[in-house]
Amino acid sequence: MKSKLHAIGVLLLSIHSLLTLGGCSTVHGDTNAEAPPLAKVIPDVDVTLFQVEHPEQFPLATATEHVTSSELVVTGAVTPDVSRAVPVISLVSGRIVSIHARLGDSVKQGQLLLSVRSDDISGGFSDYRKAVRNELLTRTQLERSEDLYKHGAIALNDLQVAQTAEDLAKVDVETTSEHLKLRGSDLDHPTGLVDIVAPVSGVITDQQVTNAAGVQSLGTAPFTISDLSYVWIVCDVYENDLPNVRLGDIADIRLNAYPNLVLKGSISNIGAVLDPNIRTAKVRIEVRNPGLMRLGMFVQATFRGQTKEKLTSVPASAILRIHDRDYVYVPAPENKFRRVEVVSGDALPGNMQEVKSGLERGQQVVANALVLDHTIGQ
User: Fold this and answer.
1) Helix (H) or strand (E) run with residue 231 in it
2) How far is it, in rounded angstroms, from Cα 103 to Cα 257?
3) pLDDT band at 314, cuts 50/70/90?
4) Rounded distance, CA 328 to CA 349, Å?
5) Correct CATH for 120-191 of 1.10.287, 1.20.1070, 1.20.58, 3.40.50
6) What are the tens digits of pLDDT across the range 329-353?
7) What 3-state class would DSSP assign to 98?
């Protein structure tokens, strides 16, 4: 009896285990309930394509070929022409008592720049006055000797000695007076002050002194005056671009401060030594200054090469500028127009415009892009 009960218990336990395993298999086997939803693919919209109802209202123009010289555009800076820079030299040493001009001032030739109190001038006037007194004494002695010689009181040799002394005294007077004149002193107004004036007209581009400073004779120039009627543009040209630059060629100069002003300059020097770090050579352009160019200004120089390039040209009205980029509209099928980005170049005669890239010769474009853009935006 006990064995039968044991067998029945084992059977019931096995049935319960099978039911439990079957329920778990049902819960974990539902893969459809756990799978993510199917993705929906939305076709992309071509934002450069626009449809209009009456495309015939927008006249088309054909891009034509334009042959031009190759261009090289580099940056540079305005510097003074060193051949037109004149140092202001002080011929005396001493202490500066007053300065009448400053860095950046425009000055005229002969204009007073500074005054210097010099011991050299004081000593020079002392020597000059002594020479004048000595010459007066020797002249008196010569006159007395001539009178004595006429009366036979002295020999001819004594007269000649007096004449020589007078001649030497005159030489001393001339030498000391010339010494003072060369140093800027006025013999009629003996003083220790020396006025230094501008040797040429121009702009003071360098100043090395201040009030109460000392100045050395033939030392550092207190001022440098530059004639800025002509200036230099110094540019860095990469080694690979040097074949496009030749001495005597004309370059177009555009100032960053005045982008609409185009100046012409001549290449006067191409550096013989390359910068070992950036592999560039200094190219110097001489330009006539219309009065707007300031030293240190940044400029853009355009060199015209000897080789010819074939570019595309379209009416200037066909190019639309949006956010510093240029676009044209070209016709597309089904009454549509496509907006294409291009790189525009220089303006050409006849209200035409260069297109450097983005458009091929023979392609048609909308002649007036602004009108089409305005219609699309409505």
Assistant:
1) strand 230-238
2) 22
3) very high
4) 20
5) 1.10.287
6) 999 888 889 999 999 888 888 889 9
7) strand
**pLDDT higher than 70, residue 30:** no
CATH topology of domain 68-80+227-377: Elongation Factor Tu (Ef-tu); domain 3 (2.40.30)
CB 273 within 8 A of CB 239: no
Question: Running DSSP on this structure, what letter comes out for residue 209?
Answer: -
| Residue 153, SS3 per DSSP | coil
C-alpha dist (Å) from residue 226 to 69, 100, 104: 36, 17, 10
The span from the CA of 61 to the CA of 312, in Å, is 12
What are 248-278's pLDDT values in tens digits? 888 999 998 898 899 999 999 999 999 999 8
Query: How confident is the model over 298-310, as pLDDT tens digits?
Result: 999 998 766 677 8
Measured distance between the N- and C-terminal CA atoms of the chain, rounded to whole angstroms:
100
Tell me how far apart the alpha carbons of residues 32 and 35 are, in angstroms, rounded to a whole number: 5
Nearest to 179 by CA among 137, 127, 218: 127
* The amino acid at 169: A
Q: What CA–CA distance (Å, rounded) separates 269 from 79?
A: 14
Q: Calculate ∠ Cα 5-6-8, nearest 5°.
A: 65
Contacts 24+ apart (CB under 8 A), 13-17: none
Write the burial class of residue 297 (CB in 10 Å: 0-12 exposed, 13-18 middle, 19+ buried): middle
**What is the per-residue DSSP string for 162-181?**
HHHHHHHHHHHHHHHHHHHH
CATH of 88-118+195-224, one of 3.40.50.720, 3.50.7.10, 2.10.25.10, 2.40.50.100: 2.40.50.100
Q: Is 325 left (phi over 0), alpha (psi -120 to 50) or beta?
A: beta
Write the pLDDT tens digit of every residue in 143-200.
888 888 888 888 888 888 889 988 998 898 888 887 777 666 766 666 767 788 898 8
How does residue 75 score in pLDDT terms, banded at 50, 70 and 90? very high
